[in-house]
Each structure stands twice: as structure tokens, then as C-alpha cells.
Amino acid sequence: xxxxxxxxxxxxxxxxxxxxxxxxxxxxxxxxxxxxxxxxxxxxxxxxxxxxxxxxxxxxxxxxxxxxxxxxxxxxxxxxxxxxxxxxxxxxxxxxxxxxxxxxxxxxxxxxxxxxxxxxxxxxxxxxxxxxxxxxxxxxxxxxxxxxxxxxxxxxxxxxxxxxxxxxxxxxxxxxxxxxxxxxxxxxxxxxxxxxxxxxxxxxxxxxxxxxxxxxxxxxxxxxxxxxxxxxxxxxxxxxxxxxxxxxxxxxxxxxxxxxxxxxxxxxxxxxxxxxxxxxxxxxxxxxxxxxxxxxxxxxxxxxxxxxxxxxxxxxxxxxxxxxxxxxxx
Length: 330
Ligand code: ASP
Fold this sequence. Notes:
The protein is an alpha+beta fold. The chain has a domain at 29-234 and 314-320. The protein contains 11 helices and 13 strands. The longest helix is centred in the first third of the chain and has 22 residues, at 4-25. The model is unreliable at 1-28 and 173-184 (pLDDT under 50). It binds aspartic acid. Aspartic acid binds next to strand 8.
């Protein structure tokens, strides 16, 4: 028969076992925290996010801080300050952020004059009953909350735009910019997804969108489910490339749902890419889309339509740039 003392001893022992078991069985990855982001310029952004993740900070704070690095970097002509403008010479920014714990999210689109659209998106998430603010409304909200106006069109981007104008055709043709920029990359985005020390998953995505787009054009990047999706029960995904294709397929949400069904991050990205190709193989030959995904175990993967997509990973184990696999030999 158990006396009270032994009972307490045994039950403390089993509850100790219980705690150990719960921790090990919660699906918390050995690699947590971890942060991954699109393109090699994601490396510097990851390093900034890492400072917060490594100190036990929250995932949404980490991804915001991370993507602010390329937003403020004027040499990066595809994100934030110094981004290439639209056809009218206006730099219009798209950004969103998502907390996978409670599916809280915030977004701004076609926002002008603000260096850090991601911080405005975060404020939309935290302080308004809405998910998305666009154009003048987003600017008004930003200014009312202490953000200041900056001219985002740098001399370099203005010069490139004026060069493009010499031959510009004012009509939306997919990838037409390539004719004017040669090999130069005319579109990139930073999509960053991460797991914090508590196992919570979130992400941020920010871009100046396609260079020389029509004024008012919004891509996938600020659209929750297209350019970014995060659900801490499953994982997160983000995208880069021709936003119209990603919007058509609800790309990042598709990737997360495929992971929910049991696909690995790379398999899920591959299936989403294949869906884009299958529905219009001719169009897919001329455009790039890349998906990047992370599951709650800390496993990650990517897939693109064409060669050339890469991504940056930072965890306790590694700091590395990976080349994505791809579907078509272009
Ligand atoms: N996805 C972005 C957009 O369509 C651009 C890019 O990532 O290249 O606006």
C-alpha cells in the first residue's frame, strides 16, 4: 500500500516524466528557433531577426525587424526605399505580416512615401479591426501613427526608370520588363518565415512589386494566403516571383494546406509550382515563381518554376544560402 510520502514521490516522478514527454512530443524542432527567407539578401535580414529569436523574442517582432533591413537598403531595388517605381515613376509598396498562433494578420498595399511598410502592416494587425489598408488610406493611417514621409525614389531608380521610359509600352504584358532590363532582375521580394523559441510560427513579406507595373497594381506579397501564410498548427509559406500567378493559385495558403495533408515543405512547394505550370504551361515558360516553406518541426524546403531562386536559412545549426530545386529547364 502506498503511504502518502511514497505517493507524493511517485506522482512527482511521473509528472516529471510527463513534462519531459510533453516537451519531447510537442513537435518542437531541435532547430528552433529558425528563420528562413527568400533570396540571398535574406541573409542580412535573417541575422537581424535572429537577434530577437535568439533572445527568446516573439516571432512577429523578429520577422518585422528582419525584413526592415532590405526595406531600408537603397541598393536593393526590389524592396522598400530605393525600389523601382511603377510606370508613372511612383514607388508603391506592398507588405504583410502574420502570426500563426491566432491567425492575426495585417497588410498594406500600394503604400507610398513610407520606408517601412511592414511596420505599418504590423500596426494594422495590432491596432485596427481590419486586415488590409491600401493606397491613400494606408498612408493616412501611417502618418496618423507617427510614420514620416520620405521620397522613396532614389536617383539610381529614377535613372533606371527614365531609361525604361524610352521604349515603354504602357500595357500589362507578363514579363515585359525583361525586354527593358535585359538580364537584370526586375522583381524580387523578401518573404521571411520563422519559428520562435516557444514554437510559434509567423512571417512577413514586403516588396516594391514588379518594376514598371501599372499604377495601382497590387501583387501577391501583401495578400494573406497568396504571398504569405502562417498557421502554427502546421507551418508557414511565402512566395516570390510573378505575383499574378501566385494570387490565382492562393499559393502560400495552398502550400500550407499541402503540408497539413502531410507533404514535406519541399514537396508542398513543388506541388504548388506544378499547379501553376499545369494550368498554363506556355505562360509558365516565361515567368518565375518560387515558394519557400517551413513546417512546425523546423523542416524547410523550396521549389521554383525556373532555375535561379535561392533562399537563406539561419538556425542554431547553420547560416546558409540554399539553391532551390526547379521544375522547368529554361
Ligand atoms: N511577388 C512580387 C510581386 O508580384 C514580386 C517578386 O517577388 O518578384 O509583386
